[in-house]
Specification:
This protein is of the alpha/beta class. It has twelve helices and 27 strands. The strands form seven sheets. It has an eleven-stranded mixed β-sheet, with helices on both faces. A four-stranded antiparallel β-sheet has the order 17-18-19-20, covered by helices on one side. Strands 24-23-26-27 form a four-stranded antiparallel β-sheet, with no helix packed on it. Strand 26 and strand 27 (596-604) form a beta hairpin.
């Protein structure tokens, strides 16, 4: 059923012209397999990978004043690994910190599904994973949803991808030029590289972290002079295996690695699948893991610093750029003796989000009162490019959230079970599907087990999520509220399906009062409004339509009714005006007056 619904969305998008007019670049018909191992310069000498590009047909002929847009993504990097977010004193990140110190540091930014492919799918589409279809690793984006690269390309941007895609190469679209890692190795590695109307697959010597930066630099130098550019730089680092650049290898050997003060197992009210399926190794294993992680991240810092100096000192265009730095997901590193990135703990879902754009943030700011989510990445880019969000994207521009034009008081977290059905327990990881709702005050988590498995954490008084309050008698009204809120948020975002329910339970159940606080925070109606936007639109009527009662319904493109009313006869009316609160997007307004039925497409910007 889920696939059928998504397919119907695609038909609706095509029928109403929601997709971009230009299909976007696909892989060329001719891809040359190169047997040699080359440097980037050698690849250019042979195949012209840095040949100057002329403007596309969509360019205006004169350089407009829209910003260049640069999106830099680390892989598996926690939010607290940077100087501006409290990194260890010995780990310096002046280049990456610069983006926050000269722009905005969104302190509360999260991944709605903290895994590589789902998070990257959310970047490209501006949608939740259950909408775009890539809900686990590896999986592809469903259907015909437009990518942010296609949209910008169709609107006059020169588009570049340099780094890790996260999908099959056949799914690549919307990029004029690209260097995409084909293999998972760091050095050397094979890449697919565009060469004008063709492409080559070739092994390039050197470390991937350097290759990504050097290719991006070369393509910017040879960009069309009359187009703004959109550059996506998704690093592979600091993802395992921990193979750093030579200049960072062993640089932290004499430094003790951080180890969390709550590196102990939950002892009460914890899901049975936590241990051993998601259990971290001992402190020796963690020490080695963190050492490799920081070595790789030091390489990302070094090339980011070099790249920013290139934009500023060499080209003098840094202030003409919107630059975003983030990660696809976080990573648990022994908190509660847990590891990995798909669990809903803060260490897993919380991301760095630094945004430098003087037009929006002329002075540096630390943003605490906005909950941003990775569904906001693409809408933020649309906002900067001056392109209306008419593509069904489910997030909001970070600028609009910061300025209070829209407000988010909760968001949905989702994870789909990754059980290997070919392996019997205990060989297969038995982690179930999970849904959670997070507000500034609490996080409520529901695991889809054969028994009732729920968790409630007080984020104000217990930010490290050490105590599950689900059975605390003082918090039962809060629990009831958040159960309702989770259902409401799932409904708003169209999350109606959950995959396999597995055998799991809540272990060491304790009903005694162990709460961290007697203050439950604000409790109100649990019907969730994703953002507060006062919206009004008019629908033209035919003569006589309102001579009888009219039923009016407003749908999302996925068929979810968001507004319904009944209008009584009014012979004098020639217009129908509705004033409702909806997030930006594309809607279908249908009204039925007797036998007359009309449908109008409504775009809210």
């Amino acid at each position: 059923m889920r696939r059928k619904v998504i397919g119907w969305v695609c038909l609706v998008q095509i029928a109403f012209g929601v997709l971009s007019a230009q299909a976007g670049s696909r892989l060329p018909a001719q891809i040359l397999e190169v047997d040699d191992t080359l440097t980037l310069d050698e690849a250019h000498e042979r195949y012209g990978i840095f040949a100057p590009r002329s403007a596309t047909a969509t360019a205006t002929g004169t350089r407009d004043d829209r910003p260049n847009i640069i999106f830099i993504m680390a892989d598996d990097s926690r939010w607290d690994s940077y100087g501006v977010n409290g990194a260890p004193s010995w780990f310096k990140t002046p280049g990456i910190d610069r983006l926050a110190q000269e722009g905005a540091n969104f302190k509360n930014f999260f991944a709605v599904l903290p895994l590589c492919t789902p998070s990257r799918g959310t970047f490209f589409t501006g949608m939740y994973p259950h909408r775009h279809g890539a809900t686990t690793n590896p999986e592809e984006i469903d259907c015909c949803f437009p990518w942010i690269s296609e949209i910008l390309q169709a609107n006059g941007y020169y588009t570049i991808l340099s780094g890790k895609l996260g999908f099959d190469l056949d799914s690549l679209r919307g990029f004029d030029d690209y260097l995409v890692a084909v293999t998972e190795s760091y050095s050397p590695a094979k890449y697919l590289i565009s060469t004008g109307n063709t492409a080559i697959k070739v092994v390039i010597g050197g470390h991937t972290t350097d290759i990504i930066k050097n290719y991006a630099r070369g393509r910017i130098l040879s960009r069309p002079p009359d187009q703004p550019f959109f550059l996506v730089m998704p690093h592979r680092a600091p993802h395992v295996p921990f193979i750093p650049r030579p200049q960072e290898k062993d640089i932290f050997d004499t430094i003790p690695m951080p180890y969390p003060d709550n590196a102990y197992k939950y002892t009460k009210n914890f899901p049975s699948y936590y241990y051993p399926d998601n259990e971290a190794g001992d402190s020796i294993v963690q020490d080695s893991t963190y050492r490799g992680y920081f070595e790789l991240l030091a390489g990302v810092e070094a090339v980011t610093n070099e790249f920013l100096k290139f934009l500023d000192d060499t080209l003098g265009i840094i202030d003409d750029c919107l630059i975003m730095y983030t990660s696809d997901n976080g990573n648990l590193k022994s908190e509660h003796k847990l590891q990995g990135k798909q669990l809903p703990q803060e260490e897993s879902i919380r991301l760095p989000m630094f945004l430098r754009y003087p037009k929006w943030f002329p002075e540096p700011v630390e943003v605490y009162d906005v909950m941003g989510i990775n569904v906001d990445w693409a809408p933020t880019i649309l906002d900067a490019a001056g392109i209306p969000n008419t593509f069904g994207m489910q997030g909001h521009s970070l600028r609009a959230l910061y300025q209070g034009e829209v407000r988010r008081n909760a968001f949905l977290y989702e994870v789909w079970s990754e059980i290997d059905k070919d392996k019997p327990a205990p060989l297969a990881n038995q982690t179930p599907a999970i849904r959670a709702v997070r507000t500034p005050y609490f996080k409520f988590i529901k695991s889809f087990c054969t028994n009732n498995v729920e968790q409630l954490f007080d984020l104000v008084n217990d930010p490290k999520e050490n105590t599950n309050l689900i059975n605390d008698p003082y918090y039962q009204k809060v629990v009831e509220y958040y159960r309702c809120l989770l259902d409401s948020v799932r409904t708003v975002y169209g999350d109606f399906t959950v995959d396999t329910i597995i055998k799991c339970s809540l272990n060491k159940v304790d009903y005694s009062h162990v709460g961290a606080s007697t203050d439950p925070g604000p409790i109100g109606p649990c019907v969730y409004v994703p953002s507060d936007v006062d919206t009004s639109f008019e629908v033209g009527l035919e003569p006589g339509d309102l001579l009888q009662p009219c039923e009016v319904e407003v749908y999302t493109l996925w068929g979810h009714v968001v507004y319904r009313t009944r209008l009584m006869p009014d012979a004098a009316a020639d217009r129908l005006q509705l004033q409702i609160t909806l997030p930006a997007g594309v809607y279908l307004a249908r009204y039925t007056c007797g036998t007359a039925r009309r449908v109008h497409r409504v775009v809210i910007q």
